[in-house]
Amino acid sequence: xxxxxxxxxxxxxxxxxxxxxxxxxxxxxxxxxxxxxxxxxxxxxxxxxxxxxxxxxxxxxxxxxxxxxxxxxxxxxxxxxxxxxxxxxxxxxxxxxxxxxxxxxxxxxxxxxxxxxxxxxxxxxxxxxxxxxxxxxxxxxxxxxxxxxxxxxxxxxxxxxxxxxxxxxxxxxxxxxxxxxxxxxxxxxxxxxxxxxxxxxxxxxxxxxxxxxxxxxxxxxxxxxxxxxxxxxxxxxxxxxxxxxxxxxxxxxxxxxxxxxxxxxxxxxxxxxxxxxxxxxxxxxxxxxxxxxxxxxxxxxxxxxxxxxxxxxxxxxxxxxxxxxxxxxxxxxxxxxxx
Length: 339
What we know:
Number of domains: 2
Number of helices: 14
Strand content: 5-15%
Order of helices and strands: HHEHEEHHEHHHHHHHHH
Helix content: over 70%
Strand order of the largest sheet: 2-3-1-4
CATH architecture of the largest domain: Up-down Bundle
Number of strands: 4
CATH superfamily of the largest domain: Multidrug efflux transporter AcrB transmembrane domain
CATH topology of the largest domain: Multidrug efflux transporter AcrB transmembrane fold
């Protein structure tokens, strides 16, 4: 079997300051974008409204589509090209229309379709897809998405706390928090529409990144037992190098599958693919340059040696107390021997 990157000895951890600067700058840009341009670009699923995907037999005039939609009583609709020059989407998220959909979510879509058919003809335009979500459903979906993120993060926290020493667990959890913040900054900076598929991508990125960090930390824990005299810095570098071949193969195959979805799966899955492709990069970055430096910092502040000494001292004290009690009990049972 071919083994990639065998017996490498790269010093990955020494670049953590550069990596910290880059990720901090990216997060600040994302937060600044939230401050200047408002919240995320939520999809119809979260805000409520109507989304229609249209396909024409010949390239239409966008102004004609807009005037037709407005003639149906839908003002301020967003009309964008969707793929080829014969495919367009009509997005209506006007507050009044969303309220109207509370009574019948398909009413606005039916109005738009009738107006387009009358203007262009039934044979010229085809409604490929329609999404119509009322305000109540949109609010429930948004609440459910936030709840899913919270529950997933909490389960990851419990698992890491049980699986590792508290130092490892804390570093891994903070690394996951970094991944979520960086991914949200990426979504905002590139104006990616936040839909249920994007939420699914964020959850997938969380699991993927946690898995990558756990693999490195598992090897680190094994190496700490094997090389007791080595310091943590060298042990972390050794562990990253020992898992490097496996990491390259895993990330390369995952990225290849994600890019295949990005280029060939169509517009519906494109936001998911973009977030997942970025997530693969974030997983590699955070496991090497976020989780490991955090573990080094925590170990520096709360050394493992101090805990080991306390445990040995407690064990010795317990042993002394037990021996004293045993001697006293023996004398009580055999007074003659004591004299």
